């Protein structure tokens, strides 16, 4: 089953915001999403250093509001590399 990148982004952002792990929520959420992305040939999520500040600002807004439209679009457009499907 090929999970589309947007579905995996939903799962990743949910894990980040809900703090489902004791420590390293962002790292673990990105790692888990990347495992599924790689398995499904959907590329990998990489936050480039040059845009980490933008990502962090959008993530904080998402944490505070629960609205994921901006961060999801940002990650989809600027942080996924190597999409095959």
Provide a brief overview of the structure.
The chain is mainly alpha-helical and 85 residues long. Helix content is 62%, strand content 5%. Helix 1 (5-18) packs antiparallel against helix 2.
User: Count of DSSP E strands?
Assistant: 2
Helix content: 55-70%
The major sheet is characterized as: 2 strands, antiparallel
Give the class from helix and strand content and strand pairing: mainly alpha
Cα-atom Rg, whole angstroms? Answer: 12 Å
Strand content: under 5%
Q: What descriptive keywords fit this protein?
A:
85 residues; mainly alpha; two-stranded antiparallel sheet; 2 strands; 5% strand; globular
Task: Report on the architecture of this protein.
This protein is mostly helical. The protein has one domain. The protein has four helices and two strands; from the N terminus they run ααβααβ. Strands 1-2 form a two-stranded antiparallel sheet. Helix 1 packs antiparallel against helix 2 and helix 3 runs antiparallel to helix 4. The longest helix is centred in the middle third of the chain and has 15 residues. The radius of gyration is 12 Å and the shape is globular. The protein starts with a helix and ends with a strand. The mean pLDDT is 90.
